[in-house]
């Protein structure tokens, strides 16, 4: 970490700042130039509050040199993490498609979709029981009942299941869920993340729609710091000025996250683009970019879906997509 | 609500869509032009899922005409809401300054600051006990102990207190807190909002840093829909491309929110700009824009503050600011 | 177009607004609901100023129904435009790679790179002579001399050439240039666009880094309205909150622009991501998304490039990429 | 400037990078830590291309320490610049209001408005002759004729005038214009900036709607580097996710620009918020924040304005605003 000192700071002020750093266990290195004086800090700076430094009278600016995340950092763990999701491996060369409806609506619906997507090649089944909605008047999901229906579908198809948690109080309901999803709006619900760090299940952590990749990794770090290192990172679209799409899919997340971290990275094109007829090109682009998996919304009857029908594929469209995914995977494979 | 139909949609498809709307209790009005066909919808469209409509094969786009919020809507409640915060009125012409440290650190610290800001004119005392931090390695607040220290300061100074909640499980600790704050990162933690809707205390709801004003009002609506209509809206800076400031204070929130809603609107310039030497101009600008109050961070020793010292005023700077605030209030008063 | 009228507007005010619309040649359609009154407008609304309407005392909001662009609109020109770029076809199923250095530096440099990229499969040669740089102290390009060197390389390799214009005064220098590029910062330099509308050459129009897709199409419309319909649209990354990459590549531009418009859409992953080791995954993703072409920076000696070396591939990396591009093209082809 | 070296870089690579810096006239300072190696660079780094460095194989990241602008930098010119705009001083404590219509429409219109705003206290008259419009089908201004009408109004009222240039070719028409405005969309039209650097008139430079404050200062630097140091900086709203306002006024620009630079800073609330009923609170907020002036749109008949009527005040509203501006100026004055 580097602190740039303002012109005009007195020697005494600089010395006092240096002792302050030293009292926090850091080595300091002073470099005085004609127009600027810089203090370099060596040691564990992850506990130094950049905002605090930035506000000191004599400090002009502060630059972090090393990333503030550790457990999620590839530098300290060069090998890809392979997450075991109910027997299915994700990451480290293992590519998986997770598919299912936005909301679980009935026993028939979820089972029917599960069987369909399994046949086409999906390895995991997703379905929403607890639904975060902008409006309190919109459908909020079947909640506990939805989880039961999802578990039934798991029992009948043998597919591991993924579903979202919105409140740690509901954790007992998730006992037989294979992967617990944290939605974009809860990416910085730190209380929830801490509790999920104590769970022995993989966590699928979605990037908030206005969060940086570093913030995503810091949220993963919250989970990992509590002892759970099975985190799957998921890019699901960021907010931009564009209005023709629901969000903007940021595929640069794939190579960047894979360089910064050892955790698997999957892509949710359905929420990102929000328009079913644009899912296929975006899903194939995600595969070509090197993602470790996809999260795709599939609904047997999108026009009557309880939510997000706009962005759901029909089982037939999904089957077609799976064929293409395989071809693109082969095309980009390192031979 | 208006649905624009794609060129080439068959009469049968349009008729089927119209019956679908009618089956949901809406009146429809068809208007056919040379290049476009439009279906107007009359009735309670707040339960219609715009995203779903947008995804239908024959629908080109959907436009909402009326706002999707009701309880927070000034159209249905023209008179300003005046919130009673532990005996202090906010809104409807009642302007208040809420001041205190970012984090509660010790009994002496919080009491000392409380006495100082009270003397300068602050009506409520703020202080963080539960602190949302991007990094799991940063100071997380004194938590339960912090609330106790804050209650002590309340007892000794008589000032009503404001502090942040991060988890509904902690509600019992907030029994004697006067105003419960929801932080920017929890603005769309809908489970928390629902539980706060059942509390009989004012809620200070901060706008998320990438949320629109309508989304802020929808989150207020979550609280109000459960029965708690004492919501104070707070703008605390939005994320932009600018890097010289922590966030960007959006003062247009004041006149816009006051037109759309009857709820009081206060401004937090400290978090918005994040640099103590810029707080004064931004605070005075907020007053000139017509805000119902300010939330200001004050710390007796910013350089040794446990967090956010960068953006804290000293008690002396705060006293000076209060004098200017009064002058600007008089300057903009309608005579 | 639809104008939503404020509650409380008098009948006289509404009638006066309706005559105002009629005096502008529009048919009006009044619809009165319990909580809202709406005026629908039928006719050529492309000349109505939405901002003006929005400001009228009695108008609450205004919604456009039809797109404000015409010549670029696929609705009125369903067939793909195929641009002829010096004998090379782009669009309508014709995929092309445009490659070359960010800046032209010397005769040897540009010729060497041209021969290399041609061999690997690039169809057009790009090179910057006029360089828009944020700093006046950064290298501004070889300007006129650069164009001469590019023309030499064209003569020796037979490759059509693409280069950027920054000032219409320089047009005479572009006489033998095959495709004229408009950079992101000039996307809304309307004076320049108008002059390029009178040129008989294809224009490669880059999206501004904070512009919407509709604004890009409106800028294409400026060129087309003057008579030049050979416009190639280019997405080159948008500005977001992310800092690990230079910009954020928005691949949803491909399917969305191809639906809205008949113009070819190409992708510039080099400027978008700005880091050479991330170009390959982003380029392949662009191909998988259905782009009509790629614009790739290639430099024989990136470490000593006059500008943007950070994002240039070496000729060998480019050759490798071209092999993969071909495979991904085959994988996504509709059979 | 600081270059952080990747783990695993060989000593030879580091040495080679250091000589490369030295060959560019910089002193280097190597600092090796356990997990990171850093090269500090001392000397004139304003010509070093950060993007190039960032792309080098062994470089992990690059941090600038000093600002890349010089002529506009307060560090090198501590005293406020006072611009003389046709005899009217702006900056250094001289606060001025510039007012007038968005577009010049007729001789009567501009003269009538000029007389009105002069009476209320405006010091300079503004009016658009060349109008940048997103749509080629929107009114483009009276162009040369507009400038003539503006000059007439200047002759009759004695007010100095401000109007926008879109093309350096039109410079001869601006001979008797007192202040030349560069619009937001041309803030990075570097060719235009260079030509305005050779003009002996003040330039009013508007911030682009997605540009940072540093980029604004770099554009000022383009003008100043050519010899024209009379630049007035203008914040006119940035693009955000908010849709209730046209743009979002960023008042933090005032204290930040005034700290970074010695140039005067004025605010255009009309374009920023785009809704006439919100102009007053935003204008007063701008005054309270310490701006050196305001740019306000005034139109005698907003409903029939050729453009931007939505955001124009009537002369009466403007007169009222001027009274309040004076009061707020007094309230915030340092006594």
Write up what this structure looks like.
The structure is a homotetramer of 335-residue chains. Chain A has 335 residues and is α/β, with parallel strands linked by helices. Chain A has helices at residues 11-23, 50-55, 107-120, 144-157, 190-196, 213-225, 253-260, 269-273, 279-288, 315-332; strands at 2-5, 27-32, 37-42, 59-63, 83-85, 88-90, 96-100, 124-126, 161-165, 179-182, 203-206, 231-235, 265-267, 293-297. In chain A, the strands form three sheets. Chain A has an eight-stranded parallel barrel, surrounded by five helices. At the A-B interface, helix 2, helix 5 and helix 6 of A face helix 2, helix 5 and helix 6 of B.
For the structure shown, list the relevant keywords.
homotetramer, 335 residues, alpha/beta, 8-stranded parallel beta barrel, 4-stranded antiparallel sheet, 10 helices, elongated
